[in-house]
Design a protein that fits this description.
Layout: E1 6-11, H1 20-29, E2 33-38, H2 48-55, E3 59-60, H3 66-71, H4 74-79, E4 83-89, H5 91-99, H6 105-112, E5 117-121, H7 125-129, H8 131-142, E6 146-147, E7 151-154, E8 160-164, H9 168-179, E9 189-194, E10 199-202, E11 205-207, H10 214-225, E12 229-234, E13 246-249, H11 253-262, E14 268-271, E15 278-280, E16 301-303, H12 307-312, E17 321-328, H13 332-343, E18 347-352, E19 364-365, E20 367-371, E21 374-377, E22 381-382, H14 383-399, H15 403-407
Helix pairs in contact: 1-2, 1-9, 5-8, 10-14
The structure holds cytidine-5'-monophosphate.
Cytidine-5'-monophosphate binds near residues 253, 271, 275, 325 and 326.
């Protein structure tokens, strides 16, 4: 199952490092390519020579070796891997990862990578249970770092409890489940809009809203994880660009529409952006000045184009599935059902954005998926989970035969 997969194994300093020989042997047995980065303390437990012999590759250890940097920079080490595995992961390397340190080759590679990372912690039971380590584990988990173990058991320090590194076979199983994620959307194209738009009043002022882009960005990331080729058209947001997604940054609704049309034919469009309903009829070309005693300026507004309705229009270029969002503060379901027909889209994801729900800018979301078949009520989930669940439903819809094909 791991044939041809490339694993960058980071070996930190701990007595459990002796297990990496068996780990490498099991990975190589499956024809995976393994390359090692050995930390300075790791080298006290295993030798570069033994790792080199088992991996049949050079072992990388010194960040400041100019020869290493010119032959294989730290960025290239991560680029050349499908997965980074830290085994054993000591309390120290977990703390350095959580803190974003880059003070040796291992931590620098871990900071520079955009690849999935699996860690196999190994440490004394009290170091594992310490609030500092647990806080670091929480930070890393939130960032998407995967953990295998630690297990309960007798340890080299004569204590008993969680802290023992997982067995090599368990680590291999975790690697397999991470690297063999199904990609049902491979070969499909997706368009996602996210964030707010900004409508200029004059060169220094604008009309906008509180959308953080968290939900739309998470949807783009989830679709990409399932293998889709994703274009994300985003208004100004503070959240980082998702990995593996083409991001087009725009400001106004007009620019968002133009970028969506320029993205070309797609299989699915998800309009999660909070597009401003109105723009200035004629934005001022110079800053509007305050004049003592004068009345405040009257802003003449005009409606923005409706991107969702435009993409939903029937025609040869219409995506097979168009998904809109309905952020409401009252009569959520009724308004959303009505919006689905009014806009002409296939699905509406309805969510309550009353201030008390904390949805705007928050990390969790309670949504209801409205389609021609009815309404599904989803439990309150993190925005990432909502995104994964929605991407899963999209994959299911796009991969099932169309009615005409089914009838053939
Ligand atoms: O009309 P309303 O703003 O409530 O509709 C929300 C849905 O329509 C969202 O999916 C939003 O992204 C989309 N929309 C749009 N263009 C607009 C207004 C809303 O794509 N001008």
């Amino acid at each position: 199952m791991l044939k041809g997969k490339r694993i960058l194994l980071i070996v930190a300093g701990g007595i459990a490092a002796f297990k990496v020989h068996e780990l490498i042997r099991l990975l190589r047995k499956q024809d995976a390519a393994v390359r090692c980065v050995l930390t300075e303390t790791g080298a006290r437990f295993v030798t570069p020579l033994s790792l080199q012999a088992l991996t049949e590759d050079k072992v990388y250890s010194d960040m400041f070796s100019l020869t290493d940097e010119s032959e294989m920079g730290h960025i290239q080490l991560s680029r050349d891997a499908d997965l980074l595995v830290v085994a054993p992961a000591t309390a120290n390397i977990l703390a350095r990862m959580a803190g974003g340190l880059a003070d040796d080759l291992a931590s620098t590679v871990l900071l520079a990578t955009d690849k999935p990372v699996l860690v196999a912690p190994a440490m004394n039971v009290r170091m594992w249970s310490h609030a500092a380590t647990q806080a670091n584990v929480e930070i890393l988990t939130k960032r998407g770092i995967e953990f295998v173990g630690p297990n309960d058991g007798a340890m080299a320090c004569n204590e008993f409890g969680p802290g023992r590194m997982s067995e090599p076979a368990e680590i291999v199983a975790a690697i397999e489940s991470l690297l063999t994620v199904e990609r049902p959307l491979a070969g499909r194209r997706a368009l996602v809009t996210s964030g707010p738009t900004r409508e200029a009043i004059d060169p220094v002022r604008y009309i906008s809203n509180h959308s953080s882009g968290k939900q739309g960005h998470a949807i783009a990331a989830a679709l990409a994880q399932l293998g889709a080729e994703v274009t994300l058209v985003s208004g100004p947001v503070a959240v980082p660009d998702p990995a593996g997604v083409t991001v087009v940054k725009i400001e106004s609704a007009d620019q968002m529409l133009a970028a969506c049309l320029a993205a070309g034919a797609v299989d699915v469009a998800v309009c999660a952006a909070a597009v401003a309903d109105w723009k200035m009829a004629t934005p001022a070309t110079a800053k509007i000045k305050k004049k003592a005693g004068a009345a405040p300026p009257a802003l003449e507004l005009t409606p923005n184009p409706d991107i969702l309705a435009t993409l939903s229009k029937a025609g040869p270029k219409r995506p097979r599935l168009v998904v809109g969002f309905a952020a409401e503060t009252e009569n959520l379901i009724a308004n959303a059902v009505d919006k689905r027909t009014r806009k002409g889209c296939d699905w509406i994801v309805a969510n309550d954005v009353s201030p008390a729900t904390g949805t705007f800018g928050g990390d969790r979301n309670t949504v209801h998926l409205i389609s021609a078949e009815g309404v599904q009520h989803w439990p309150t989930l993190s925005k990432e989970r909502v995104a994964m669940q929605l991407a899963g439903a999209i994959a299911l819809h796009l991969t099932r035969p169309r009615p005409a094909e089914a009838a053939e």
